[in-house]
Amino acid sequence: MNHLYIVHDGENKYVFRVYTHHWRTPLEIQEEVRLLNHLKGADRQIAFPIADQSNQFIQEIEAPEGTRFGVLFSYAKGIKTAKFSPETSFLIGQALAKVHQSTENIELMRMSYNAQNLLKNPVLRTKKFYHQNSSEIEFLESLSDFLTLKMENADQQHMRYGAVHLDVWFDNLHIGDEKEVTFFDFDFCGNGYLCYDISYFLFQLFTTHLNEEEYQVKADSFIKGYETITEITPEEKKLLPFACLAIMNYYISVQCDRFEYWTNIFLNEDHLKRMVGNLKRWIAYHKIELK
Question: Which residue in 18, 24, 103, 212 could disulfide with 3, CB within 3.0 to 4.6 Å?
Answer without folding.
Answer: 18
